Amino acid sequence: MLRYVIRRILMLIGIVFIISVGSFFLIHLLPGNITAVIEGPGASPENQAKLFKLLGLNRPIYEQYFVWIGNILHGNLGTSFISQTPVVTTIGNALPIDLEIMFLSQILAFAVAIPMAMRSARKPDGVIDRFFSAGSFTMLSVPSFIVIILLVLFVSIKLGIPHTGPSSYVSLRGDWIGNLESMALPAITLAVGSFVVYFRVLRSDLIATLQEEFITMARSKGLSQRRIMWRHAFRPSSVALLGAAGVNIGGLLAGGFVVQYLLNIPGLGYTLIAAINTDDYLLVQGIVLVVSVGVVLINFFFDFIINIVDPRISRE
Amino acid sequence: MLELEEMALVERPEKKKPLGPLFWLCVGWIALNIFGAIFANVLPLQNPLYQNYSAINVGPSLHHIFGTDDIGRDIFSRIVYGSRVSIAVGFGSMVIGFGIGAPLGMLAAYRRGRFDTILTTFMYILLAFPAIIATIAVLSFWTPRSVFKIILVIGLASVPLVYRVIRTATLSVATKDYVIAAKVQGAKDRRILMKELLPNIAPIGISFLLIGIATVIALEGTLAFLGLSVTTPTPSWGNMINESRTVLQQNPWLAIFPSLALCLFLLSLNFIGDRLRSHFDVTEVKL
Amino acid sequence: MTDVSEKLLIVEDLSTTFATAGGPLPAVANISFDLGRNETIGIVGESGSGKTVLSRTIMGLQPRTNVSVTGSVLLDGNEMVGASEDFKRRLWGTEVAMVFQDPMTSLNPVMRIGKQIDEALRVRLGMSKQDAKARAIELLELVGIPSPVQRYKAYPGQLSGGMRQRVVIAIALACSPKLLMADEPTTGLDVTIQAQILNLLDELKERLHMSVVLVTHDLGVVATRTSRIVVMYAGRIVEIGATRDVFANHRMPYTRALLESSPKVSNASHTRLITIPGRPPNLLKLTQGCSFAPRCSYATDKCHQERPELQAADQPGHSFACWNPLPTTRGDSAT
Ligand SMILES: Nc1ncnc2c1ncn2[C@@H]1O[C@H](COP(=O)(O)OP(=O)(O)OP(=O)(O)O)[C@@H](O)[C@H]1O
Ligand code: SF4
Ligand SMILES: [Mg+2]
Fold first, then answer.
1. Less crowded by CB within 10 Å, the N or C end of chain B?
2. Which domain covers residue A175, as residue numbers?
3. How many other C-beta atoms lie within 10 A of the C-beta of residue A315?
4. ipTM score of the complex?
5. Whose CA is nearest to atom 3 of ligand 2?
6. Whether the bond into B144 is cis, omega within 30 of 0
């Protein structure tokens, strides 16, 4: 177990290093006078000089990298020349929103996917299973930006739930009912995309688990179906589910961006797209770095959880 | 969107499932779409860029079977033309992804040893890197955006994934008796790779390719939706849907038709891929 | 009050057929036998002869789909064939329990073994958490697991095959069943452990007043531990009788082949000296003749055309199914 953790951590460090190099070059590969490009048209010479110093442009490129990474390790991602706010502050304001959406959507997705998969797995190829499977297969082909258009079209316009305009996001601190209302659409959209994946993964794994001998053994003890499903089948199958969740939550980011962008939810995705549109390169770089590292950490975290749930893995 | 990340494919040679009529319906649908994309200029379609201000936001009618958009362009012909970008990006990037990833994967699985270890470690590190963010980041900096650049970026980003799938598939074949027998008999590597391995991993490769194309098309749609794909007024399914947002209430057709076109195309690709996979008895395996 | 002389188990004309892609597969056909209280009966046969399917069908534990069961199983007066899952569930664990064949696959790999014993006690007997735990540890001790308090927290993967088999037995014994179906409880274990576990079962049977159905492919195992033996081939009974009669006066060539292939006690390494040539028949392609005919050195034309029914032998309760029975010259131990 310890060796496993150490190996994973070493790998983690390697990946984070590569990500940092990638993000670093993102800016340095820009064509033209870099300071002018970064600050956009009409940059003052004073600002250019500041940036020149921040980036250490007169030094060799590897030194520039170390200066840059040193700053980052001190929590300094630079200050946007567009908004004059430190990148770290902007990210700090946006991040909790992403976390909240992610949390709500995943809870929702699991709450729907798990009972559905259990129902399906009880009679594979039965009427209910065919219906669920065909439905989920179809939904697999609906990208999240279409889901949100449909939701807006058929739900929020009909019900009068706000869906556009900068006012749609209500901070959690102010009024939590308003906050939940404003989070409903984005959370549901992301939940739809996730639940399809979770349902399919859990269903096929449960079907396989339910054929195991230890399930017959549990049956022979006279346990109820419900208990067998939850205590004996779900737990080993949940490993597959967690694995899928790890991959999915990382992959969900693009969908999350779209949803935020469309519904004006000022999370990282929204901020990123806005930064791209205003050529706020330092902010783009900062978000790319934070999100990439976040995804890697999430995968690491899920790997770890899986290890705890399934004592078989770390022993191998 | 990247469900395909957990669909690595492994062979299980037993019974075969019939393909069924729905499969051929999907094949026909894909063929029809490709035909439309290629021959859009020749077909009797209205000019997708012509703005007819006397027919703005009209619903489906005989003259405009899918109606017109908010500046009077014919939606049907925009959808047909729009399929060009989606299809080009979908197929183009997979050509790059498979062109690089597949030979490397086969070679690594066949050779094993140091070559395999180094390459595989490298690819797995790349895999841990969130490809979507990288794609978005690169495309946001690399302006002006063109179909070619998008194909290149997505294509390169898909290489590690293709590599992993093809390598896994090849590994499961390369240890089979007939391949080992061919090796022992002194057959040339090239011959073994082309004659023994390739035909056996082809079904896996093809179904993964189709699902990959669908995934990439959805990704292009997402990028277009974020304003990161080709610039307007070139129609693409994604940017049509994006443009429709502002007039969602007045003219829902504007959103519904391109969405339908995109979803049906993706559904057909996924369905064909899935059927092929179960036909050749390949199981989904979570890696 | 149940009559003590009444049989605990009466199996009559029991058949189990699986619906498979290749057609109906008759895994168990027309089995009849009974079992008294505190009696041990042995079921022997080669791999694939239907022993596991038979013992599961007796319990009503067959898969829930693609299987049809006909005939009758009276377990302590309860009809098991056609009974609802709810009804059977009330008998499982307390009336009848099973020791599963393969201890590697029959324990839940992600659940602590203590929990796997506990849960039957808590769910079926309504014991409190502490009581169940205490009893589980008692059971672990009973089946001879050293330091049961520590083992209680172990996962199956941390135990050896022999230890796991003991855990499986402990689970089966948890609710003190009247009938224990022991499905090859010692396959895959090494010889000393085999003997230990079999002796343990014997001892527990006496202590807990159980009846035992002891399934095995090794006649040596049942020689001293059973009062009667059922010999199965291709899903059918081919010979049945008191243990000594089956050993000394078997009439069916298959039984003899089994006896000869059984590891001799004198042969320390326990390797099989003679194995039965050929393979058991494909159950999907059974002919109308004797299923053993293709492998039988006594086979005649008739054997290929007509199936022999069970017929009574000289000794009471001993019958066999064969057109050309072996002569009874091997000494008349019955009389
Ligand atoms: N669920 C099932 N579906 C279809 N066929 C089955 C099923 N279970 C068992 N069988 C078939 O029934 C036959 C008898 O199998 P069974 O497991 O009872 O043999 P066995 O005597 O216990 O052998 P072993 O000594 O190997 O345990 C086999 O041919 C097997 O393939
Ligand atoms: S009936 Fe014929 S084939 Fe069958 S066991 Fe007897 S002698 Fe052999
Ligand atoms: Mg068996």
1. C
2. 95-268+294-309
3. 12
4. 0.86
5. C293
6. yes
